[in-house]
Amino acid sequence: MIGFIDTLDISYEVVICSNGSIDKTVELGLILERTYPQKVRFFSVKEKGVGRALKFCIPQFRYPHILSLDMDLSSDLSFITDVLAHLDTYDIVIGSKRVGTQSRKVIRKLGSGLYILITRLLLNIHFTDYSLGAKVYKKSVLERYRGLICDYGTDYVINIVYSAFHDGYRILEIPVRCFDNRVSKFNLLREGMYRYKKIFILWTFHRFHRLHR
User: Fold this and answer.
1) Among 116, 122, 206, which Cα is nearest to 167's?
2) Domains of the chain by residue range
3) Where are the extended beta strands (E) located within 8-133?
């Protein structure tokens, strides 16, 4: 990835944060930081939680735009090139597998399709990808909605996008190519139920506030 970004002639940093990992993540992260001292910054928090790691990193980011990629780089790196033209115009850029191309297991496609349908019906937003990877946020957006990022779970994307959309931020969705046929380390059923539950909580919260304005 570093070799790819170097061809773009832009200023950047790669920020990696381990969240309570018990494998070799910390060891490998420190090796990367030593190997690329001007390009890679590695942090580690003791407690688990991807949201906790992001909240820790927000004050550490040196640049005004934050691009999030999955660690396995399942999204094609062309997303980085494609997004550069939109950084000055939009506050959030969503890389979507559904409007792009995806090579994923059928169960993943069905689960994400149902999730998108529910978000449209309940939240009335039209975007088609709320996964963690292939997203770009202005740092100021993450700072404003930091309180919506839960320590645990993967629902912070929908929380931020939903709130930013209704607050008038400029959001763009662009295609991304995704290749992910690996065996998931997550319990997909448990993760799906968690995310659906979070949608209903978000819908109930905002519906309650609309009724009591």
Assistant:
1) 206
2) 2-211
3) 14-19, 40-45, 65-68, 92-104
Dihedral angle computed from the Cα positions of residues 128, 133, 138 and 142, in that order, rounded to the nearest 10 degrees: 90
DSSP state at residue 183: P
Domain 2-211: homologous superfamily in CATH: Spore Coat Polysaccharide Biosynthesis Protein SpsA; Chain A (3.90.550.10)
Residue 48 burial by CB count (10 A; 0-12/13-18/19+): exposed, middle or buried?
middle
* Residue 8: Cβ within 10 Å count: 10
The segments of the chain whose pLDDT lies below 70 read 181-189, 191-192, 208-213
120-176 residue pLDDT tens: 999 999 999 999 999 999 999 999 999 999 998 788 999 999 999 999 999 999 999
